[in-house]
């Protein structure tokens, strides 16, 4: 990752930070979906499927890990300046210009020694999500579906999250974000949320 741009969120009394994060991240997701490429992967069952991946990754430079808080800044990274130019941040975030300060594209400092992975944490036993899926699949009411999971223990996380809407299903859900520091850089691919367990971004 050689180039980046930075966004600083500017909340106020009428537009709180959590609401602004949702708007910003939704635009980020749509932008990444538009420029994504398809990649063939093998799932846990050994089946091949096509997924959309991106060369663009993100970080949260003002994140407060102890308080489980993402802060108010977002960095968007790419291997080349051309890829960030094609990302066209101005187009996607122009409607939020009163609430988001956007920098020009910059080169990542040569002095960077730390790297990190920002990745999605998926809680497998979220009863509300499971109930919604069961309701749709079986064409039954939410209340009826929730009874099926009443005795299940939910898997909980205290990781910070942003509400997003899936571009494919339209489902609104909390996107929990984990973070791990890595000793070495690894550039593979990122999801259309700019996240990856295996690809790193510079930390500075």
Provide an overview of this structure.
- This protein is α+β, with helices and mostly antiparallel strands and 204 residues long.
- It has a domain at 3-123 and 183-203: 2-Layer Sandwich (Alpha-Beta Plaits), CATH 3.30.70.
- The protein is 25% helix and 29% strand.
- It has helices at residues 17-35, 81-87, 89-93, 127-138, 142-148; strands at residues 3-9, 37-42, 48-53, 57-59, 73-78, 100-102, 106-107, 114-121, 161-165, 172-182, 201-203.
- The longest helix is centred in the N-terminal third of the chain and has 19 residues, at 17-35.
- The chain is globular and about 55 Å long.
- The mean pLDDT is 89.
Secondary structure elements and pairings:
Blueprint: E1 3-9, H1 17-35, E2 37-42, E3 48-53, E4 57-59, E5 73-78, H2 81-87, H3 89-93, E6 100-102, E7 106-107, E8 114-121, H4 127-138, H5 142-148, E9 161-165, E10 172-182, E11 201-203
Antiparallel strand pairs: 1-5, 1-6, 1-7, 2-3, 4-5, 8-10, 8-11, 9-10
Helix pairs in contact: 4-5
Task: Provide a compact summary of the structure.
With 204 residues, this protein is α+β, with helices and mostly antiparallel strands. It is 25% helix and 29% strand.
The CATH topology annotation of the domain at 3-123 and 183-203 reads as: Alpha-Beta Plaits
> In the CATH hierarchy, what is the class of the domain at 3-123 and 183-203?
Alpha Beta
What would you give as the CATH superfamily of the domain at 3-123 and 183-203?
CRISPR-associated endoribonuclease Cas6/Csy4
Overall 3D shape: globular
Task: Give the tally of β-strands.
Answer: 11
Proportion in helices? 10-25%
Mean pLDDT: 89
Order of helices and strands: EHEEEEHHEEEHHEEE
Q: Kindly, what is the distance between the CA atoms of the first and last residues, rounded to a whole number of angstroms?
A: 13 Å
In the CATH hierarchy, the architecture of the domain at 3-123 and 183-203 is: 2-Layer Sandwich
